[in-house]
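Lecture 7 notes: from sequence to structure.

We start with a single chain of 319 residues. Read the sequence below before looking at the structure.
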Amino acid sequence: MRIGLLGTGPWAQMVHAPALSGHDEVEFTGVWGRRADAAAELADRHGTRAYTDVDALLADVDAVAVALPPDVQAALAARAARAGRHLLLDKPLAATVAHGREVVEAARRAEVASVVFFTTRFQPEADAWIAEQAKKGGWFTARAQWLGSVFTTDSPFGASPWRREKGALWDVGPHALSVLLPVLGDVRRVSAAAHGPGDTAHVVLDHIGGASSTLTLSLTAPPAAAGATVELRGEAGVSTLPDSADGALPAFGRAVDALLEAARTGRSHPCDAAFALRVSEVLAAAESLRGLGGGGVPQLNAPLEEPRCAVGCLRRRGR
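Now the structure, written as tokens:
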């Protein structure tokens, strides 16, 4: 598969480009970025070509990997799908639900494969744990804490405008939901959402399986308090998401493998654009409720139908 990279920022440099250049089953065809000099530098580092015209890159590839802010990603992903290119995207899918739907619809119409890089879902220990807990069922409640220190350290992501605007809810919230939804089922409603210190968000979810979950999300945690925890409690007792032995780079390589498989077989991956859209709908509902100051409970859409369904349709497919 010939694959091009859209984006030249820290995430592209740390994860996307090294994974693509080191993958045995893809040809890292080139790099396009909003800054031509950065694209040239990154391309030179990995022995590939820099493109100044995104459509020229799309003409030369079978798929694109996108490492761009969500508002930029959504427009280019829809454009790439309409050109018949498979999509390896990052979370969140888009900055708005409407733009996310455009990506899903473009991919559906073009019949291209899509995989969204929810990091935890591509780590073997976590993926196996999620599958095991979903099979057990009988969960009563869950607690997810995803605490980052992006805004309290010299992180290269701290100056990101979209993170400054959207905060932890949209940055680490997708990670928490990517773990909870396959285990507890789709979200029926956001029961409560509130502000905490800095950009911290507290969210309570009601799941269609009968369980409830609480999320605490932050990018302003003290460095000593940073980390991710997911704990389930139910008929089987207590179970906690295991730590991963490796980081984002090998996980992204597995996401590339997933895209290759989806493109080859025509079977959608559990973390496709439709699943990412459902995650965005939950985030948008929580964001709306926080904006109301607790004055109301927005109802989410009914369980989604094909092709926009997420957890429900995956279960119907026997996954």
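The two ends are 26 Å apart (CA to CA). Keep this in mind for problem set 3.
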